[in-house]
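Appendix C: a fully annotated inverse folding record. The material below is reproduced so that readers can follow the format used throughout the book. The structure is listed first as tokens, followed by the designed sequence.
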């Protein structure tokens, strides 16, 4: 599995993470993904931390595990309690990447980041991330940390959802923040003809997939990974699709193919 630097942390992150929102595949597909070198993304709100615990049992140190704190738990003490609850559900004593799931209009970001830094100081969290933060919200969050950097921002990014390219992605690339692309297959919309409604996406994916001998899903993921600083977290309940997704970093797209796919949006 290809690795990408995780923000400015000095650590590396595999370019494929296994998404677990609305995940119903049991421990098997996650274990297979781990075997293939993938990391795992969950959240306190997904109800999947328990199955992640099962998948990483007896191999915790091999797997990079990320989870998220929900918007209702962003006050200082509430956040510390939420992290302890995630640690219990994950059956672990540390979280590799703890992410603020959504920005808050209610709780000052300095209070939330203060709690996140405390968790790193306590050894319960290795790295701090955010999710669904705009560029200005990310900058504010960065300014609110003093001891531990924000290493990632998890946002929606795919061939057909490219709004982050205007500002957020270049900012992340220039400032050593990893962009974790959630919903990289557009919830399955980029995986098969019957699911796609956008005609240019059909044509480009079909052509490139046949040129490189890969599935549409693999091309859609490889396209995201053609961007510096980006990793992807596709979700699948099925072992064979996890295997396919984990092989996508090995697909090398030519500049012409990337350009053709760029024109889709
Ligand atoms: N931070 C946030 O606010 C946020 C929001 C949304 C999502 N996320 C994260 O991002 C992850 C992924 O997003 P998502 O689950 O919404 O959508 P997604 O990964 O874009 O798409 C998942 C869909 O694609 C199908 N699929 C996966 N691999 C495939 C393949 N190789 N061939 C054909 N179909 C394939 C899956 O079906 P099967 O399962 O049946 O294979 C499922 O229907 C989530 O699980 C979660 O971890 C984060």
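Designed amino acids, in order:
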């Amino acid at each position: 599995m290809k690795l990408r630097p995780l923000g400015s942390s000095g650590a590396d992150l595999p370019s494929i993470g296994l998404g677990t929102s609305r995940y119903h595949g049991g421990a098997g597909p996650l274990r297979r993904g781990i075997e293939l070198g993938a990391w795992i993304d969950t959240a306190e709100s997904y109800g999947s931390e328990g199955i992640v615990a099962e998948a990483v049992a007896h191999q915790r140190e091999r797997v990079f595990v990320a989870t998220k704190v929900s918007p209702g738990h962003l006050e200082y003490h509430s956040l510390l309690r939420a992290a302890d609850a995630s640690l219990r559900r994950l059956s672990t004593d540390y979280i590799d990447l703890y992410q603020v799931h959504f920005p808050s209009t209610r709780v000052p970001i300095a209070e939330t980041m203060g709690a996140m830094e405390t968790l790193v100081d306590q050894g319960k969290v290795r790295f701090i991330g955010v999710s669904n933060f705009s560029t200005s919200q990310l900058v504010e969050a960065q300014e609110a940390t003093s001891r531990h950097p924000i290493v990632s921002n998890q946002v929606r990014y795919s061939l057909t959802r490219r709004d982050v390219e205007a500002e957020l992605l270049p900012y992340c690339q220039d400032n050593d923040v990893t962009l974790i692309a959630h919903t990289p297959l557009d919830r399955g919309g980029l995986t098969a003809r019957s699911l796609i409604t956008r005609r240019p996406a059909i044509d480009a994916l079909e052509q490139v997939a046949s040129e490189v001998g890969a599935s549409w899903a693999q091309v859609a993921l490889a396209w995201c990974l053609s961007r510096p600083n980006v990793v992807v977290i596709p979700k699948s309940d099925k072992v064979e699709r996890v295997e396919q997704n984990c092989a996508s970093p090995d697909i090398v797209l030519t500049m012409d193919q990337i350009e053709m796919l760029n024109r889709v949006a």
